[in-house]
Amino acid sequence: MDxxxxxxxxxxxxxxxxxxxxxxxxxxxxxxxxxxxxxxYTVFRYIKKTRLTRLALAELALLQQQGCEVNDLHHLLKxxxxxSFPREIAASLHGDAWLxxxxxxxxxxxxxxxxxxxxxxxxxxxxxxxKPNMLAELSHFKTCQDWIKKTxxxxxxxxxKSRVTKIVKNRVENRVENSxx
Length: 181
What we know:
Number of helices: 9
Helix content: 55-70%
Oligomer: single chain
Mean pLDDT: 83
């Protein structure tokens, strides 16, 4: 008798199943879901945060196309400020205080924005006249555009309103005190 005839075929093991996944694959899936979720949250937050800036720039471009007076630019800036800052602070501002407020909001610790205060005569020439007739020039639009881009604009929520009011009041009071010294 032939000893080779008694051998049986080799039985291959069953193929390795992809399911159930190992712990490491679950960790990779969870990490990817967290990264995607964080990215989506960040994008939506950025869109919400820059919404007011985009709307303001669009309205400024529309005013520039139509041709407008300097007072119209003041009205636009006042509406932007009232939707971004507490009414208690921004609504009563006028004249030089209004222009310095605009400069302060666009300024940072590293860069001082002073386009409004440096050109106060041009900005307030027709501001309080009965029939304003000074047409806005390209420099006016450029100043407004720079201010809108450099100022952190975000609509006030009811929850944040009191906290922001305190912060902005303190900032304005500190700057007024420092300018009086």
